[in-house]
Batch of 3 targets.
Target 1
Amino acid sequence: MIDLLATHYNYLMFVALVGLGLYGVTASSNLVKKIIGLNIFQVGIFLFIVTSGYIDGGSPPVVHGHGAETYVSPLPHVLILTAIVVGVSLTAVALALVVRIYEAYGTLDEDTIREVRLND
Amino acid sequence: MTDAIALLVAVPIVFALFPIAFGGRWEHMGWGTAALGALVHLGLSLTVAATVLSGGRFTYAVGGYTPPFGIELVGDGVSAVLVVLTSLVTVAVVAYARRAGPHSNTFYSELLVLTAGISGVFVTGDVFNLYVFIEITGLATYALVATGRGPAAALASLKYLLVGTVGASLYLLGVGYLYVATGTLNMADLASQLSSVGYGSPLVLTGFGLIVVGLAVKAALFPLHTWQPGAYAESPDSVTAYISALVSTAAAYALFRIIYAVFTPAFDAAVPFALDALVILASVSVVVGSVLAVLQSDLKRMLAYSSVAQFGLIVAGFAIANATAVTGGLVHLIGHAVMKAGLFVGVGALAGVAGGRTVDDFAGLAERAPLVSAAFAVLAFALVGVPPAIGFAGKWHIVLGAVEGGRWGVALVAVVSTLLTLAYFARVVERMYFRDAPAPAEESVAAAADGGDAELASDGGSDGDGDASGAASDAGAEPETISMTARIIVVGAAVAAVGVGLVATDLIAVFEPVLEVYF
């Protein structure tokens, strides 16, 4: 158990973040907190893919003329850079929608919005 | 001219910039830009289709980096047909939106970005690139749904965004698992690497599960469909027509590619329960989606739940894993896009005449809008699967494939779903044709019918809209008339649904070389 914690802490962190994020998306009735949960969920996945490229003792994949070393794989990092951009755009769109919803209903609480809509 | 396949993605994105960049100077340039972009896109997709028809499958290395290191685009029978479909739907929706709106420049930019994203999904041969295109598609769709009037559209869009992003992220996680297992992202390379890693490996199995669940969210299979009815019902009619025709289609197509180009039927042979589970998920989706559709009174919601059922059928076809059923799934995928787009434009147009879009509002509509009502009825029966329409060809092959594969359950579900589809369309068509219009409008029905004739007569003139609306207001009916473009689109979709059904064997012949590689 301790061994697992010492060697695979990154994967445990990934599981924790993904679980926490999904809990935030589903359990919170506040729309902004749902978006925060979504971000945590995505960051968990990013962490998983980024750490999968890590090699103990490897050097950054920049060649300085002399080779024969162990390099870490740059591909996962590049992928996640792209995914981060996608995540930021999604957050921006989500927050813009939240602004519109708040202007219309005066609240960010999902349950209250549902009541308001039922009364209409 | 293989560059055309890359331009399919690049051109709409470049065109999308113009309405934003110059919208301040020329207020109404959005429509013209989108129309031009859609036509250029159509030309490019026809070029791709011509290349595929003459020379078969071809690949394109983006930026000159050779696969598997670079990104690969693939043009083959299936992707060529789907990009042509994308172009045609784009042209039709842009034409429809000219009158139906929304009229803002940003709307047209979003539509073009969505076109680029969907084209990308159809042509890419790289699983991470597919994720990026799925997210571009998603982002543009969320923005388009939110262009609907009122806060309900924003709420539906946010719900779609939350559920859709979780789905896409699960797909990304699945891709991560496959990458960890194989060290590659190219679909063709993954196929060979996965078999050497071993299909039973927990990494591969988990990756498959995550990817399938992620794409099932995007394709709106029950019980992951919760975002879809709200998003379809609250968005403007032009947007609903577009996303119902293409967005879920893109996700289902991605699922097809993942199952056959990445995992291949050998995976099914090694781990049968993976696709068995998908067949069960899809079958449940067919039944529940149909039942929920029967229960709806709002027509847009009814059509939305109908999509849940139809996509269940399509995915069931893909998951049965024999050539006949997969062919059926692909034919129904294309047929569904044509028919649903036509039906949604039809509901949008008819709702304007009926003054509402519940099933009861449509009573007696056939007298007031005979042409569009007839086309709507044809599309409805096409989706039910009445021969010779395309709906029949798709369902027939799925049922045939299910029987071939010994999956009697799916064959039964397909037949039951056909009956349920008939149930929810028959009550609409019955009201349109065999009920009188609601009481307050009753006295004006005869006059309105005359108005309808006047509209038809004026169809010949290029600018008949003004006269027709004058005729309608003379008849004392408050409802608006149906625009010329809406008529052409609904009738065109109905003709296409029957026409493609008649040439279904040719369509299947185009798919054949693609499927031969897999089976």
Target 2
Amino acid sequence: MTSATLSLRPASRVRLPIFGGLALAVFLAGFLLPGYLEGGYLQSMLNNGFITGILALCVAFVMHQCGLVLFGIATYYGIAAYVCAILVNSFGFSAPSAAALALLAALVSAFLIGAIVIRVKPLAFMMICLSLAELMRHLVALPSLRGMTGGSDGLVFMPEGRILGIDAMDMLDSARVWPLIWSATWVVAGIFLVVALSHFGVRLRAIKENEERMRFSGFDTYWPRVLAFAGVGLAAGVAGVLQALASGFASPEMFSIITSTNALLAAITGGVSSVVGPVLGGVIYTWAISEFGAMGYSQLFTGISVILVILFIPRGVLHPLRLLLRKGGRA
Amino acid sequence: MIPTLILNALAVSSLYIMMASGLALIFGLRRVMNFGHGAIYMVGAYLGYTIASGMNFWAALILVPLIMSVFGVLLELLVLRPLERRQQIEVALITFGIGIVIAQIVIRIYGGTPLSVSAPPLLASSVKIFGADYPVYRLFITVIGLCSVVALAVWLNATRTGMFVRAVSHAPDVSSMMGINADRLSLLISTLSTAFAGLAGVLVGPYLSIDPGMDVAMIITCMIVVVIGGTGSIWGAIFAALIFGFVQTFGTVYLHEISVLLPYLMLIGILVWRPQGLNFGGGAE
């Protein structure tokens, strides 16, 4: 069973208080981080890394629970960012209401798209998701929408109001926005973990294992997956809104294949069955890409990473270690 | 106006047909979607540019498909064959990574600015068709496209090898039990597929432009075409390529800039109607 980490085994029930305490300590300690980093390059990289981490969590969730490769997560990420920016710029919305509507837009679009793409075969699913991200990239860059979307230059916006006690203008400061990104990552990871452990998660994995058998056993196999897809779209929307607020900017590049590829890479490298791995993967890839990007090799790096990761560690870096531990535990 | 548009659509479709039929053939045999196909087309176009400016266009037209067929051999021997036992999505992602690497290398060599190739003197003129001047070069693309479809049809339906290809696409296990060597066929198909991609690359030079984003644009087009046609269905892909070319050409004229969205809307529309794609004429799945 590949879902070992996400199913409650007797052993982990004993370890739960220890893990819970540890997680709480890490969570609280995270808020102290800006004090040590004092803003600057490392902090903004960490912010971007966690946002990519949220996207990677989404990809990992769909991969692990539904067995589908979500190669177009950038769609919902970008939609949320643009809706947020457009509502602020063109319609004078305040930051919290724009953010809320942006999340709603991501949810609704993912629901509608999910209702169509869930029915197709896995390979076609992957290709369609990728094409839809391209559709959005073209859409926001249309010259006739330039007044609203800023065309191919992207859209700069200045939100007003407070979100969860942080002034929207302060969010452009990488240290001030950190608590929001940090807690959002925890919330998304926590919800994914709870869903994975719930009856709904079991049902999703059962559909993944054998859709036909589930259908014959009288279970609906369509709507659970559409709902999961919509939920993942919403989570990607969270990442999009965070990115938009933290940079005050939405650009067509948010929809690019490279955004989706990096999220996918982070998810696979970190291991799709875990919630910590994809986030760590997001941080590491963001760091590596900014290092290689400085030399002009960021896309080359992405390409080579895709080949190496799929070739050598298709189940994530932790997988061999986990196998070893499990064998050790049994002996 | 309309006849000109139809001819334009046929010329664009010819390019898409050359690309998509190659993808569908590999998919039929190996169940692998080659996401690096766009990058191979890009290499073909840039090599075409180099050879056309160094020697002449006709040399490029002959040499590039030959050089690109070597890519096909490499693809088969280094990627498809060793990864035969891996999941199809994993192999697709690896070809995607290879595509990115190839495209980046091309951009490193040639730089990021768009290049253009001039049509050879013989084809640079235009002819009167239905009272309008029409560039001979576009007719030439259409003729090559049509010839390749006819050749493909004859090859698949009238020769022994073609029959084997159809057999393996239809039932891989049974045909290997009957003694058909799928590996050798796959080598042939990969070679053909990349050679066609190279040919499309050379042909596109004088027609459209050669730029660093051409690989992504083409692979997205190919994916839409292949999904609409029904994954792995060769005739479905050819038919879908034809529709795609027409929708794009007419859309550009009548709907202006909205036309870039049309292919995607068409994709969504067709999938709502038929999740399996059009898929007629005997597909692989």
Target 3
Amino acid sequence: MKSLEELRAIREKMKRQMDLRGPNEDHIRVVVGMATCGIAAGARPVMAAFLDEVEKRGLKNVTVSQTGCIGVCRLEPIVEVFVPGEEKVTYVKMKPDMVPAIVEQHLVNHNVVTDYTIGAAE
Amino acid sequence: MKELSLNILDVAQNSISAGATRLDLTLTEGESGWLTVVIADNGRGMSPEFLAKVTDPFTTTRTTRKVGMGLALYLLAAEQTGGTLRMESTPGQGTTVTATFDRKHLDCPPLGDLAGTVALLIQGSPELEVHYRHTTPRGEAELSTEELKAVLGDDISLAEPEIFTWIQTYLSEQEAQLEGAVQER
């Protein structure tokens, strides 16, 4: 069973990592649409999969956040990826099993997974 | 919506949009199989006129389109089990949404992943004070962000992926015990 004691240990570990972290210029943002349309289409497990994958890989330069309706409800769940200096990429009809590929290829290696983008769906 | 926990996530997002700093999410299950879900916030509230039409799917605060399905779907979910949806709101003070569900009814959706819902609400709004309590005849699951912040201090955000994973697992374990107790009956 998880306990608050374990949370204390996580805090100590994170604080040590924070001290090592320098200024971050290549900060990547992953934004998941979490309005009624996104939630109904399955955004919650997709969001959870991104957070799990980012944690597993220890990616300190990635922020995963939520937003409202992105505007193309029929293509939900939608995820937008913002990499500084690059064009915004919109992934559509997301499923949790698509997440590891996006994290590995796009967030880590800067290669867009074109099969999952809005351009491929339209 | 396939799970009540998804409806709850959706309705609770309205509280965040309404600028709430505190959110109380309370689920109470009785011996009879009736479930009461209370989502209470201290957000900006609604005027009586808006409150009167808020479950209409063509009512929304958004300016970019004219549909708002969240509360309409929540009302439907409650009513199709023979339950009810009640809303109280005071402008400037907050809103309380209370829904009842007959969990023994054939058309009652499963509760689903409540731990995931609560963990994502906290992750999405790390400054929000969240109090979650799920009481059943088999036991109780409980979490408050106050408690977590007391351990984590001010320098670690509740939005961090490591913290999300911990909250989700911590609550899943509590919820699983409640469900496990059901199957043993």
